[in-house]
Amino acid sequence: MRDPAAEIAEINAPLEREAPALFRALSPLGRRAFFPPDIPSQAAEARGATLNGTTGQITDGRGGAVRLPALAAAFGDLPGRDLDQALLYSPVEGLPEVRQRWREWQRRQAPATSAETATSLPLVTAGLSHALSLAADLFGGEGRAVAIPQPFWGNYRQAFAVRTGARVLTGPAYVEGRYNPRAIPEALAAVPAGEPAVALLNVPSNPGGYTPDREERRATIAALLAEAERRPLVVICDDAYAGLVFAPEIPRESLFWDLAGIAGVHPNLTAVKIDGATKELAFFGGRVGFLTFAVEPDSEAARSLESKVKMLVRSSIGSPVASSQVILLQALRQEGIAAEVEAVRALLQGRYEALKAALEKVDRNLLTPLPFNSGCFALVELPEKLGLDSETVRRHLLAHHDTGLISIAPRYLRIAHCSVDAAALPELVRRLEKAVSELASGVPDRTK
User: Fold this and answer.
1) 403 has which bridge partners?
2) Rounded to two decimals, what is the model's pTM?
3) What residue spans define the domains of the chain?
């Protein structure tokens, strides 16, 4: 057996050579991680062998699955090879065809100007939260600065700060009710120059449901480039809601494509894309996510990153679920999948328009709607002068108006219009406004 230190040095060498800023930004765990030449590695080398006694899974003796009729029946008329793939272990990095077809899907959503942009073959993860935790393992770590526009999805804090000990630093996502393109530099303003940092961009955003317009997009990219002049900067694009844009003047393409193109020439910028079938294909129960890096797919750097991610996957979940990947594969093979996805976007657009119209009529003394134009959510803010916090309003709504929303401290409420029928959204807003009015006028909160 080779010395692990020698293996680590061998895996890290291409990154030090081809992507030195990325290497500097790796956490201690990220630097140590490599996929060892044990069972999965040796089993992968033996795929296709006439006699294969490597992997500890029960087969028919010829490499196919042992198909329990009760399980096989649940997959209907799935072709035999796909059925075998669904019932057996997935490779740690994911099924090869799924990875290739998702890369093609990503590039169908990219601008034409990104045709030559270098991106790795996506690695399959057990949903987007798993992909985020892998990115946190690679680039987080004790004391690492992680900049996030606020308000943000709470699981970012769990993935980066609680799990890895990183420091979550925030800048305001909105200033005077408008999108703030300088949120990341503002969050990192006190971090010494030269110290590596991570930036998290969630566009369209959760909880805000906002995508920057073209001018705001240019300003955001310029702000990130200016920050990359000061330090190695890893920009993680959480593209969970990619493509769900409802205003015609707003670009649908992920900011990742702009940043990936820049990453090819800017020495300090590293772009990472996290996406998946959860929202893009409305496959919430499938838990199929992807992790993609802005590096050449066949480069030594890509192979090094893949080795590190595979070790992290292998040591936590073993391998991603094969059956979900096979189901996703059936969809990605269909020529009409883009039209089906567009139909879901159109459904959500109707709900967005219904909510937008209802929020335009609210009393601004009770509620301040923040701008939203995409994704699955909208944020409203309680005016500070009311002296109310969002949790009090949430509990009052649930107890007295049979309505559930998410509270985000101190004064934000998130409306998930994606899960409410368009015809019911005006009533939801009416109940919210009434609840705030009751609390503001001194009606006792009987939920306590």
Assistant:
1) none
2) 0.95
3) 4-40+79-332, 338-440
Strands 178-179 and 174-175: antiparallel
Fold of domain 338-440: Aspartate Aminotransferase, domain 1 (3.90.1150)
241, 279 contact by CB (below 8 A): yes
Q: Is 59 helix (H, G, I), strand (E, B) or coil?
A: strand
The CATH class of 4-40+79-332 is alpha beta
Residues across the chain: 448
Q: Which residues contact 167 (CB under 8 A, 6 or more apart)?
A: 143, 144, 145, 146, 161
C-alpha torsion 135→138→141→145, nearest 10 = -60
The residue type found at 171 is G
* Phi and psi, residue 379, nearest 5°: -110, 140
How many other CB atoms sit within 10 Å of the CB of residue 161? 16
pLDDT in tens, the chain (448 residues): 568 899 999 999 999 999 999 999 999 999 999 999 887 888 888 888 888 888 889 999 998 999 999 999 999 999 999 999 999 999 999 999 999 999 999 999 999 888 889 999 999 999 999 999 999 999 999 999 999 999 999 999 999 999 999 999 999 999 999 999 999 999 999 999 999 999 999 999 999 999 999 999 999 999 999 999 999 999 999 999 999 999 999 999 999 999 999 877 789 999 999 999 999 999 999 999 999 999 999 999 999 999 999 999 999 999 999 999 999 999 999 999 999 999 999 999 999 999 999 999 999 999 999 999 999 999 999 999 999 999 999 999 999 999 999 999 999 999 999 999 999 999 999 999 999 999 999 865 554 4
